[in-house]
Write a structure and sequence with these properties.
Distance between the termini: 60 Å
Number of strands: 5
Shape: globular
Strand order of the largest sheet: 1-2-3-4-5
Helix content: 40-55%
Strand content: 25-35%
Largest sheet: 5 strands, antiparallel
Radius of gyration: 17 Å
C-alpha cells in the first residue's frame, strides 16, 4: 500500500465508522452518506502531506436517488477540522429538510431564490452609493 493510501485510510478511520473511502470523479476521497438524500465528499487529501487542506462538497440527490448535485462547497479545511465541518454540513442538510427542501429539485429552487435575493441586495447597495 502506498504511503498516501495509508494516510488517507488513517484519516478516514479517525473520522469514525460513518465514513468510507470511495472513488469520486477519478479521485479516491472520503465519503459519508447522511441517509437523508445528502452526502459529503472530502476531496484533496489523498496525499502523504499532512498539511494539505481538504475541500468538502455537500451533495444533494435527486428524487430518484440516482444522480447527485453539489449544493455547497467548503474549501481550505484543515485535516483536524474535517469532522467538525462535516457535522456542520449535516446540520445544514437537516435544516434544509426541516424547511421542506428534501430533494435536489426543491433545494435547487431554494438556492436560485437565495441568489436572486443576493443580486437584488447588491444592486440596492450599489444604487445607494
Amino acid at each position: 500500500m502506498k504511503e498516501k493510501d495509508k494516510v488517507l485510510q488513517a484519516l478516514c478511520d479517525g473520522l469514525g465508522e460513518n465514513y468510507k473511502l470511495m472513488e469520486i470523479d477519478l479521485e479516491l476521497c472520503i465519503y459519508r452518506n447522511f441517509g437523508n438524500r445528502f452526502e459529503v465528499e472530502v476531496s484533496g487529501v489523498h496525499t502523504a502531506k499532512q498539511n494539505k487542506k481538504a475541500t468538502i462538497y455537500l451533495w444533494c440527490m435527486d428524487a430518484t436517488g440516482a444522480h447527485g448535485y453539489v449544493i455547497k462547497k467548503v474549501g481550505e479545511v484543515p485535516r483536524n477540522k474535517i469532522g467538525k465541518t462535516v457535522e456542520e454540513l449535516y446540520e445544514y442538510s437537516e435544516n434544509l429538510i426541516s424547511q421542506g427542501y428534501d430533494c435536489y429539485e426543491k433545494v435547487q429552487a431554494y438556492l436560485k431564490e437565495l441568489v436572486k435575493k443576493e443580486q437584488i441586495k447588491k444592486e440596492e447597495d450599489n444604487g445607494a452609493r
